[in-house]
Amino acid sequence: MKIDRLVSMIMILLDKKRIGAQELADMFEVSPRTIYRDIDTINMAGIPVHSTSGVGGGFEIMRNYKLDKKFFSTADLSALLMGLSSLSNTVQGDELVNALAKVKSFIPADKAKDIELKANQIHIDLSPWMGNRNIQPYLEIIKTALQESRLLTFQYSAHHGNKTARIVEPYQLVLKNSHWYLQGYCHMRSDYRLFKLSRISNIQIKDESFIPRDYQKPILEFEDILETMETKIKIRIHRAVMDRVLDYCAYEEFAPDGDEYYIVDFPFIENDYYFDVLLSFGNKCECLEPLYIRKEMKRRIHDIAVMYEN
Fold first, then answer.
1. Directed axis angle between helix 74-88 and helix 3-15, to 10°?
2. Span(s) in the chain for CATH 2.30.30
3. Which Pfam families is this protein grouped with (predicted)?
4. What is the predicted pLDDT for the residue at 261?
5. Residue 210 in contact with residue 150, Cβ under 8 Å?
6. N- to C-terminal Cα separation, the chain
7. What distance in Å separates the CA atoms of residue 41 and residue 29, rounded to the nearest whole number?
8. For the chain, what is the HEC assignment?
9. In the chain, which residues fall in CATH 1.10.10.10?
10. What are residue 258's DSSP bridge partners?
11. What is the C-alpha separation between 188 and 197, in angstroms, rounded?
12. What are the angstrom distances between the C-alpha of 36 and each of 1, 56, 159?
């Protein structure tokens, strides 16, 4: 059972007068049966949760109850502070500031220094070193649209630079592989789409609101699909680019080739993205095999050379 779900449930119960099991189940994406087990666990921990059946029923913490600060261990509070502090570096807003303040209120004075030390042992900074300066203000605009269920309009640059005007019902912000995405229902495509924020421009909130649909979550895991598409190629790299190559494969794929070079079994998919990755290593990388990939690399390098000659 995840402590973060239990803590979140306690915070919700403290904040709301009453909430139903199904609403909690939808909120945490679990079954109502799991919610009932969680409520039992919270009761066993000494927090009196009362349930009411029938229309308008649900769970509520007994009136006049105050949460004992000893309910959270040092490890619990350290983990909560670490997560909230890391998220606040990327997503701004009063709700995160308030959540941090509430968590800090549970810290006993005699444990404050120890908890702060443990919370700072792991620092997660999701902001890029450099890049699109519009991302942060766009996040704030999308957050507002999400909270108020209002339509968004923007220009979107798809593959090969095709730019289209979109009207979108926003449903979720997604952070995947250090990139932000917006999952929403696109009126142009009459379907759900995942939009990369770095490809969005001229985003605006419309005055028009929308009635939320049955939400379709984005597919974010492609391991099974990629395994069928992926192949291993052999490349010879100079040690100067070893740190960059390690972003794509494990050190176990490296075999020394003299003092300066390595032979690497490199995971590869035959598309422009992966050819561009190899080209980005410049003259510090040579594709050895298979032969048809090597020939395609040679053709692309030739086209680049011709462009510069002209």
1. 80
2. 135-209
3. HTH_11, WCX, WYL
4. 96
5. yes
6. 64
7. 18
8. CCHHHHHHHHHHHHHCCCECHHHHHHHHCCCHHHHHHHHHHHHHCCCCEEEECCCCCEEEECCCCCCCHHHCCHHHHHHHHHHHHHHHCCCCCHHHHHHHHHHHCCCCHHHHHHHHHHHCCCCCCCCCCCCCCCHHHHHHHHHHHHHHCEEEEEEEECHHHCEEEEEEEEEEEEEECCEEEEEEEECCCCEEEEEEHHHEEEEEEEEEECCCCCCCCCCCCCHHHHHHHCEEEEEEEEHHHHHHHCCCCCHHHEEEECCCEEEEEEEECCCHHHHHHHHHCHHHEEEEECHHHHHHHHHHHHHHHHHHHC
9. 3-67
10. none
11. 18
12. 12, 17, 46
Round the CA-based radius of gyration of the chain to a whole number and report it.
26
Q: Which of 118-127, 202-211, 240-249 is the least confident region? A: 118-127
Q: What pTM did the predictor assign?
A: 0.56
Q: Does domain 3-67 have CATH number 1.10.10.10?
A: yes
d(CA 79, CA 86): 11
Question: Is beta strand 179-186 parallel, antiparallel or unpaired with respect to 191-196?
Answer: antiparallel
CA dihedral 173, 176, 179, 183 (to 10 degrees): -30
8 Å CB contact between 220 and 196: no
Specify which residues 287 forms β-bridges with.
235
CATH architecture of 135-209: Roll (2.30)
How do residues 141-173 score in pLDDT, each as one tens digit? 998 999 899 999 999 988 767 889 999 999 988
The answer, yes or no, to whether the previous bond of 128 is cis (omega within 30 of 0) is no
pLDDT tens-place string over residues 200-243: 999 999 999 999 888 777 776 655 656 677 889 999 999 999 99
